[in-house]
Design goal:
The chain has 180 residues and is an alpha+beta fold. Helices cover 51% and strands 15% of the residues. The chain has seven helices and four strands, in the order H-H-H-H-H-H-E-E-H-E-E. The structure holds protoporphyrin IX containing FE. The site of protoporphyrin IX containing FE has 25 residues, from helix 4, helix 5, helix 6 and helix 7.
Length: 180
Amino acid sequence: MHGIIFQELQQYVESKLGNEIWVSLLQAAGMEGRVFMPTKSYPDEEATALVTIASEMTGTPAAEILEDFGKFIVPDLYKLFGMLIRPEWKTLDVVENAERSIHTAIRAKDPNAKPPELACTRLGPDEVLIEYSSDRKMCAVAVGIAKGIAEHYSEKIEVTHDTCMLKGDPVCKIGFKRVD
Ligand code: HEM
């Protein structure tokens, strides 16, 4: 996973729980003193280990942490990659274009970036379906990113998660519906 995402994870943990907890998380994961560089990528297992330990430490389910983290990173995603997002787009347009216009462009520009391949289908003016099948099984991040995007545009969305890789399904089918 991209160094930027690890840096965001550090900022997220520090903003919610403080720097000491981040330091002890690294220790508990056997990564004492680690500094993550935005120009590199790191094993997915390290991200999973940090989230699993954070979940054990705080008693918060890992999926809840990942969803909240997804929301947290949206303002920085806009700062870093805002040029890929058209000014006329709103929440569902960004979600619909997450693969075709955003993740594809990021993959082409930055060999360290391996965003998940998403199948995005516009079901209607107010509805988009995403099929997510990444080995990382971080579907909760997808939900959080979409909710963060909705916050960015002051819109409300409803999320359904009908099939889920974490329940043994081959793919997560995540529906996003605009409700106001
Ligand atoms: C604001 C527009 C977006 C930008 C700029 C963006 C960019 C990125 C980047 C740079 C990564 C890290 C890749 C890596 O670690 O190598 C990432 C990961 C991810 N993105 Fe996006 N993304 C956007 C929108 C979305 C949307 C709308 C979804 C789904 C609803 C999504 C789902 C994910 C997920 C689930 C991950 C990480 C976990 C995994 O790989 O399974 N992204 N994205």
